[in-house]
Structures are given as structure tokens and as C-alpha cells.
Amino acid sequence: MTEIFGVPVSLLLGQLLLGLLNGTTYAMLSLGLAVIFGLMDEVNFAHGAFFMMGAMFAWMGGQYFHLSFWWMLLLAPLLVGLVGLLVERLMLRRLRGMDPIYGLLLTFGLALLIEGLFRTFFGVSGSPYNPPELLSGVLNLGFMYLPLYYVFAMVASVVVCFGTWLLIERTKLGSYLRAGTENPSLVQAFGINFPLLVMLTFAFGSALAGLAGVLSAPIVQVSPLMGSNLIIVVFAIVVIGGMGSVMGAIVSGLALGVIEALAKVVYAPISSTVVFILMAVVLTVRPAGLFGKEK
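^ that's the sequence the OP posted. Answer follows.
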């Protein structure tokens, strides 16, 4: 059996694919955070709760309303986006212009509230969510059997991530968003409803978290705790990529998923902390992050 540094090639390739799968989830979650921070300059600690809500809504739709995965892939992100829209309109907007710590504390408390509500009604043990029958098969890659759903989840996440990047970087709407981050008053002077733009952006970032939750539901156990277990890692990835950088969030998320997977092969105990080690190194060398702009 061919080995690289004492590790079988089949094991290495398998870990790379699984790392890429985790990386696409990281990228989509980080992307939602980056979009919100880039426009609103606010750290949304409820992002992990929105991720969990997407998965829980998908599970509830199948369990109680017998809706298929495909329906919930559409509906769950819309529901989470609506929750995000209400949070921005009824809560965060009232804090606009105040110290950002108030928004951070509000979203942190909101995350605890949402998680507590779901824990009260559904417990913490977790529930399986089966992939759609169309994607229930496996692919024989020679060195491993890869579930077909994993391929779909990876491709869908990458398409959404780079589609969002194109929307922000290559369209007129994206130019309004970027201009709004630099000079909101000037944007409003040109007749653009900037508060509406902020509200819709927060809803869009929340919907991205919900979509990531739906895509992750057939891969992990659906549980009210799934968001809190992931959000700290995602924040570290956003910092590494550069706060507010869309491309930084995508590239760092994908890269960290692969690096984390390789760390499990080389030295498993370090895999859970490698992202924080990398964050410390990156901030030491480049405080603004890999793709962030120095102020």
C-alpha cells in the first residue's frame, strides 16, 4: 500500500474529501457572518442559532408536515431569513449608532434564548434526518465509498458561496452594499433606502446560515446544540480571512476544513485547536486577516 509520511494514501485522500465537506460548511457560515459584519460592522453571535434553526426547521418540516428535503431546502432558509429580518428591524436597528458591544450582547443573549427554547421542546439528544431518496446512494472512488449526498452538499455549498461573491463584487446591488459600508450618508443621498438595504442584508446573511443548517442536517445529528458547538470555530475562520471579507471567508473556510482533516491524520489531538493556532499566527503577522484591509 502506497504511503506518504507513513500515512496510507487512501486514508489521506478520504480525509481530504471529508475535510472539504466540512470546509464548505465553514465557508457558507463564515460567508453569512462576513456579509453582515461588512455592511453593519456588527458581530452576530446569533449566527450559530440561525444555523441550528435551519436544520431544526428542516427536521420539523419532515417530521410534522411530511415535507420533502427539497421543499425544506427552499422553505427553511426563507423562514430563518424572516427571523433575521425581524431581529434587525425590531432589535438591532434600535442600537444603531451605539457602542457595538450592545449589539454583540444582544445577539449573544438572543442565541441563548433561541437555543433554550429548542432545548425545552426537543431536548439535546439529537435526531437523524435522512437525505432524499434521489441522493441516498454511494460513489465507489476506489479508495473509499462516498455518500452521494456528500457530493451534492459540497457542490451546492460552493455554488452558493461563489454566487454570493459574484452578487456582492460584480453587480450594481453589490456596489451599493460596498458603498454603504464606506459612506452610508452618501448612499442615501443618491436615493437608496440604506436602512432597508441593511435589513435585507441581515436577513440574507441569516438565510445563508439557515441554508448551511439544512445542508448539514442529513450529515450530522440535528440538535439544538449544533450551532453553539460550531460558531466559535466559524468566528475564528472569519477573523483569519479578514472581518467583512467575502472572499476571505470562503477561502479560509475551505482551507481550514482541509487543514483540520489533515491534522486528524497527522496528530489527532491538535485537530480541534489547529484553527485557533492558525488564527494566532495570522493575527501576529497580519492583524487585519489574510484578505482584510488595514485601517
